[in-house]
Amino acid sequence: MSRLERLPEDLVAPVDDGACDHLPGLRLPALALPATTGPSVDLSSLPGLTVLYAYPRTGQPDQPLPTDWDVIPGARGCTPQSCAFRDHHAELAAAGARVFGLSTQDTAYQTEAAGRLHLPFPLLSDAEGGWRVR
Fold first, then answer.
1. Which phi and psi angles does 94 have, rounded to 5°?
2. What is this structure's pTM?
3. Alpha carbon distance 32, 29 (integer Å)
4. SS3 string of 46-68?
5. Which of 7, 18, 52, 126 counts the most CB atoms within 10 A of its CB?
6. For residues 114, 61, 11 and 8, what is the CA-based torsion angle, rounded to 10 degrees?
7. Residue 82, SS3?
8. CA distances (Å), origin 76, targets 32, 47, 59, 79, 95
9. Residues 70, 35, 28, CA angle at the centre, nearest 5°?
């Protein structure tokens, strides 16, 4: 297990402050986002069940983490989160769900991470900041 897949013992746990309570049931705006697997994806147009997880960034083994990254609640854990979705991808697919990861990193950066982590699903990039849920 790499240093990016292990969480520090003293990591600050995020607290649910209710800021996302308005999101369940909210319709996604139409926006095609670049995907690591090819054509852009417009999440608002997909039928059926979709699992979308958002993360701030994935780390790279040869690069240091940003300064004070571990003191931001919830910031650390993006790589383990992606690996957990990878490890449960077959179960999610069997339940009829498609999976996407979403971050503001560019597609080239995400493509490296998806390959290194052997992710069987696309990562979507909102590097341009066009998609915001309000």
1. -65, -30
2. 0.81
3. 10
4. CCCEEEEEECCCCCCCCCCCCCC
5. 126
6. 120
7. helix
8. 27, 32, 9, 8, 29
9. 80
